Amino acid sequence: MRMRRRRFLRGALGAAGAAAAASAAGGCGNLHSSDPDVLTFMFRGSTEERDVFAKAVELFTKKTGHRVDLISTSADQYATKLQTAILGNSTPDVFYLEPPRTMAYVTNGVLADISEYVDATDLPVDDVWPGGMNLYRFDGEQIGKGPLYAMPKDVGPFSFGYNKTLFEKLGVEPPDPDVPLSWEEFLDRCKDLTRERDGKPVSWGTSVNIGAELHSYAWSNGADWVDPTARTVTVDTPEFAEALQYVVDLREKHEVTPSINETEGLDGYQRWLRGQIGFFPVAPWDLTLYRTLDFEFDLCPYPAGKSGESATNIGSLGIGVSSKSRRPDRAAQLAMFLSCDPDAQDIIVGQGQTIPNTRTRAKEWVKDTSIEPQNKQEYVDIVEDYGRFVPNARTYTPEWLDTFFTNIQPVVEGRADVGEYLSSTQATMQSFLDEGYDQLRIDQEANS
């Protein structure tokens, strides 16, 4: 057992590995402050997002009198720096965490149970999206039940969108704001949007980010990553193969997305920003930038496979409190404030960083047609109706899902068979998933 635990800990970026090592030692909660009355808050994001949340924290200090030291990083550096803090027994009082880290951080004593503070607050915590709250509940066996260990910073509906200006320019019928296109209809629109000038492509129907968007195509075709118990990987089904093949064919067969050569200089995202892509994801965190572009855009449902229903994923970050914090009451107050204080939401939502984190506010927000997108209701529909959280949020470690994309490039480029890849990858994914559950039991015993 000890050999397995040491081997697991060598995974430097493994959530459970970091958490397990951290739980073995004590230490104060303040990363940079020797004053126990000064909270430390570690968070990440673009420069714009960090500026916005810094303003919200400034408002917290103004309202409560509680001082907060900010530790902000870019998104690509955050995981490593947070882990270093945890391993160094200097976990910040309040910090962002991804949902797949919840089980490991709770099991290994990194996160504090904030239920008592949430139950006692006057802030509108009961109005926060229930799905977002449940991502950070864990009873020792199952996500979504038991004590609360973090407040959702946000729920991020990963919506589809389209370039209204390009559609109008090319005379292509825009998608219905409520009814998803079928895969056949979507392909037809993409073909109409893909144009050349002097023998060179100047616009394309879409551009697919396989890691972010395959969820939508698989789910809408009746496929899923795991069974309902999250114990068995299910990517080796005909429905999943059909979905992946459809995505591959968009470029390799139908040529309605930029080719490999065409993305070497400018990738799909950059071409969308230049107005050359018809359909493209429009997530809430994109809105600040997208509203500055030289074309109009709006939201629509993702195209639907044979289920006939659109599907997409919902992202989230949690705001957790360190179990080592010397002021857990104030730390929990900050987490709740950033999640749902009305004035803080004015700052955060108003700057185009998230959709409103409370249901009542969201109902009013969608009525505002003065700023893009017009069809904001699509975001709310995703959160309330048909969106799903990626299933690694319900498992002990996320590596089982990560491994799916490790060697997928030959498949995406049409150089490897879809069915063969899914069959072989299912076995590898299953092995990682099983190891994660084994590690859960090891860590539970070690921390009991």
UniProtKB/TrEMBL annotation:
InterPro entries: Bact_solute-bd_prot1, SBP, TAT_signal. SUPFAM superfamilies: Periplasmic binding protein-like II. Keywords: Cell membrane, Lipoprotein, Membrane, Palmitate, Signal. Residues 1-24 form the signal peptide. It comes from the Bacteria. Gene3D superfamilies: Periplasmic binding protein-like II (3.40.190.10). PROSITE patterns: PROKAR_LIPOPROTEIN (PS51257), TAT (PS51318). This is Sugar ABC transporter substrate-binding protein.
